[in-house]
C-alpha cells in the first residue's frame, strides 16, 4: 500500500468511499509561468528550468490532492502573449494534413478513413492482447505516480476508450462535413471504435 501525504490520502479515501474529513481538490491547471512560480515559492524563470519540480510544488502548496493528467510541461508552450507552440493544429485551423495526406475536402477525409482507419482498427481488434493492455496501464500509471511523488494521488486519465469525434485529426470543417454527408462511413468508424473500446476497457477494469 503506497504511503501518501495527508492530501493524497484524502483523495484516495474519497475514491474508496470512505468517511473523510475535508474535501479533496483536483483538476487545477495553471498556464501562466509567473503564477506557477509565485504559488510554488520559486523565483522568476525557475519553472522553465525545472517544470516538473516547480509545477508539482505549486500544486502541493495550493492543496491539490489528486491529478489525473501529467500536465506539468504543458505551460512550456505558453509565453507572455499566449500560445507559442507554433504550427497550429487541427483544432486551431492548422494545416489539414494527416500523416502526409492532405485532408482538404470531406471526401478526402472519408477516403483516408476507409483506406487507413478502418483496416487499422480491424487489425487492433483482431490482434488485441488483453494481458499486455493490462500491463501497459499498470506500468504507465505507476511511473506517473513515482514522478508525482507521495504528495498527490495520480488517478487514471485516458485509459478508458470510447468512440469519439475525429476532428482533432482531420480538422473541424472537413470532418464535420463528412459527418453530415457520409453518415454511413462515420457510423462504421464509431462501430469499430466501440468494438475496440470494449476490449480495452475490459482490460482496464481487470
Describe what this molecule looks like in 3D.
By secondary structure, the chain is mainly alpha-helical. Helices cover 53% and strands 6% of the residues. The chain has helices at residues 6-15, 33-40, 46-49, 51-61, 106-126, 130-148, 167-170, 172-181, 183-205, and strands at residues 66-67, 78-79, 82-83, 97-98, 101-102, 153-154. The chain has a two-stranded parallel sheet with strand order 1-6. β4 and β5 form a beta hairpin. It is globular. The mean pLDDT is 87.
Summarize the structure.
By secondary structure, this protein is mainly alpha-helical. It has 9 helices and 6 strands, in the order ααααβββββααβααα.
Order of helices and strands: HHHHEEEEEHHEHHH
Number of helices in the DSSP assignment: 9
Alpha carbon gap, first and last residue: 18 Å
Q: Give a count of the beta strands, DSSP E runs of length 2 or more.
A: 6
Radius of gyration: 21 Å
Percent range for β-strand residues? 5-15%
Mean pLDDT: 87
Alpha-beta content class = mainly alpha
Poorly predicted parts: none
Quaternary form: single chain
Question: How would you characterize the largest beta sheet?
Answer: 2 strands, parallel
User: What spatial order of strands do you see in the largest sheet?
Assistant: 1-6
Helix content range: 40-55%
Give the CA-based shape.
Answer: globular
Amino acid at each position: 500500500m503506497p504511503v501518501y501525504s495527508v492530501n493524497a490520502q484524502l483523495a484516495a479515501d474519497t475514491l474508496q468511499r470512505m468517511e473523510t474529513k475535508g474535501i479533496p481538490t483536483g483538476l487545477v491547471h495553471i498556464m501562466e509561468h509567473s503564477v506557477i512560480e509565485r504559488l510554488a515559492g520559486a523565483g522568476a524563470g525557475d519553472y522553465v528550468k525545472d517544470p516538473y519540480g516547480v509545477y508539482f510544488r505549486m500544486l502541493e502548496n495550493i492543496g491539490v490532492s489528486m491529478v489525473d493528467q501529467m500536465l506539468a510541461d504543458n505551460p512550456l508552450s505558453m509565453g507572455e502573449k499566449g500560445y507559442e507552440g507554433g504550427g497550429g493544429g487541427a483544432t486551431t485551423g492548422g494545416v489539414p494534413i494527416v500523416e502526409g495526406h492532405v485532408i482538404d475536402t470531406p471526401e478526402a477525409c472519408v477516403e483516408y478513413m476507409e483506406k487507413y482507419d478502418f483496416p487499422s482498427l480491424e487489425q487492433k481488434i483482431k490482434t488485441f492482447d488483453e494481458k499486455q493492455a493490462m500491463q501497459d496501464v499498470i506500468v504507465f500509471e505507476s511511473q506517473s505516480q513515482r514522478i508525482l511523488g507521495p504528495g498527490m494521488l495520480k488517478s487514471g486519465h485516458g485509459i478508458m476508450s470510447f468512440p469519439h469525434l475525429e476532428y482533432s485529426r482531420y480538422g473541424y470543417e472537413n470532418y464535420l462535413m463528412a459527418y453530415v454527408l457520409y453518415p454511413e462511413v462515420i457510423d462504421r468508424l464509431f462501430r469499430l471504435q466501440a468494438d475496440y473500446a470494449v476490449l480495452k476497457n475490459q482490460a482496464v477494469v481487470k
